[in-house]
Amino acid sequence: IFPCVFQAILIFCWVYVRKYQSRRESEVISTITAIFALAVALISSALLPVDIFLVSYMKNQNGTFKDWADANVSRQIEDTVLYGYYTLYSIILFCVFLWIPFVYFYYEEKEDDDGNTCSQVKTALKYTLGFITVCAVLLLIGAFVPLDIPNKKNSTEWEKVKLLFEEFGSSHGLTALSFSISSLTVIGMLAAITYTAYGMSALPLNLIKGTTSAAYERLENTEDIEEVEQRLLRIKSKCRDGRPLSSRDRRTVQQLEERLRTLRRRERHLESIEKSLWTKFCEAIRPLKIVWGVFFIIVALLFTVSLFLSNLDKALHSAGFDSGFIILGTNLTNPLNMLLPVLQTVFPLDYILITTIVMYFIFTSMAGIRNMGIWFFWIRLYKIRRGKTRPQALLFLCMILLLIVLHTSYMIYSLAPQYVMYGSQKYLVQELAAFLFCVNLCYLLSFLDQCIVTRTYLFLHKFWFFSAAYYFGNWAFIAVFLIGLIVSCCKGKKSVIEGEVDEDDSDMSDDELSVYYH
């Protein structure tokens, strides 16, 4: 099954990249890099469900370990999952700090240079060296950063927490890698706050509202063309007697001519869309889009409520800021944390749900990036447009998705903390009577010899200060989602050619979209 899944991921990445990349500016090396980085992001997102499944699979429903799951086998499985994390995370470090920056700067130099490959490589390596230096600094800091969790009054509980992290390993090399990945996860948190939170509101509302009619837009566009042409004629009529136009009139003529070219490009695109079979198919499935939109907005609201309750639980019952807001058990439950234990009774519904949640976060992130474009603070760097996206923008998009995937695990943990920690594991508790046992779900303070913690949980909480940053990031995520929901509700329908025709486009770019409409 894994080779089939891997092939499906590669096919999806190839189709996605080819759908958005510019035909005139496409390059083999940038295309391969974008496809590979996107595939790594999707494969990394699958680690969390696999991790939860493996720790759950080692135990029976009555709380006992399966016959084959002795101490050595359990430890071997845990180590295998851990090495899987470190392998994929090492690849992510390689992509973020070396490969993607090198390809990006190489392509930037290729646009400015006249074809001197050696010069392009040298300049790209020079700029990439800065990223490598940052990576080296993070690795050095991570190798020697103190990991001691501050002592608390309840020493018994905190000794158990410390023991969990001691079992996670104390190798300086693994700690350095963990620190570097956690640093990138904080950046991924900022990207998730910016793009995923907005995408969760924009994607379903765009499906519900739909787009304007191509025929109606053509009618309005034709009226705009006639109006601009009339204004041009009135201004040019001033020089019929041989008098030259004033500088103000010349500037106005130039602006109107540019506006006219843009309107005529819109006319060609609208005509192509109106005649395309794809448009007719989309109109036929319009009711289905509305149903999906309503479903997605319900899911988004469910996630937001669950995240709010989870964060509120940490605010009220956690050990505080200097412990990374680690919570010693669930006090305020949330809808998702209640639903997953119910689904555990029917295999594999809980794993299907957790995998769906992970994929939902990734696709809403893609939708957010596509709607907003790529920004650096208040400066818009690139637009993501079908068939017209520059290679540099695709590389940025894939890097952002890599960083968001790193943060996805903590988002899932925030939504269902107990489930992410132990899956469906149960343990036996001896009652007062010597021969009576009670079966309970595992939670943080469960007996360490009876419950196995997922590697995901330990990885997320290895550094308490990063956990504290994630906690505050969740509040920011909720706030941005609500703001995005209000903005998306107030906005009208999108144009059927939204973002596909801009004034800075050339007439040659019209051919790049024709493949989608014919």
From TrEMBL:
Identify its protein family: Belongs to the LIMR family. LMBRD1 subfamily.
Pfam families to which the protein is assigned, alphabetical = LMBR1
Record protein name field: Lysosomal cobalamin transport escort protein LMBD1
Where does this one sit in the cell? Answer: Lysosome membrane
Query: Which InterPro entries does the record cross-reference, listed alphabetically?
Result: LMBD1_LysCbl_Transport (IPR050854), LMBR1-like_membr_prot (IPR006876)
**Keywords assigned by UniProt?**
Cobalamin, Cobalt, Coiled coil, Lysosome, Membrane, Transmembrane, Transmembrane helix, Transport
Q: Which domain of life is it from?
A: Eukaryota
Mention any one GO cellular component term assigned to this protein in its UniProt record. Answer: lysosomal membrane
**Recorded topology in the membrane:** Multi-pass membrane protein
What species was this sequence derived from?
Balearica regulorum gibbericeps (East African grey crowned-crane)
Transmembrane stretches, start-end: 28-48, 83-107, 127-147, 174-198, 290-309, 351-381, 393-412, 432-451, 463-487
UniProt record, GO biological process: protein localization to lysosome
Look up the coiled coil feature and give its residue ranges.
246-273
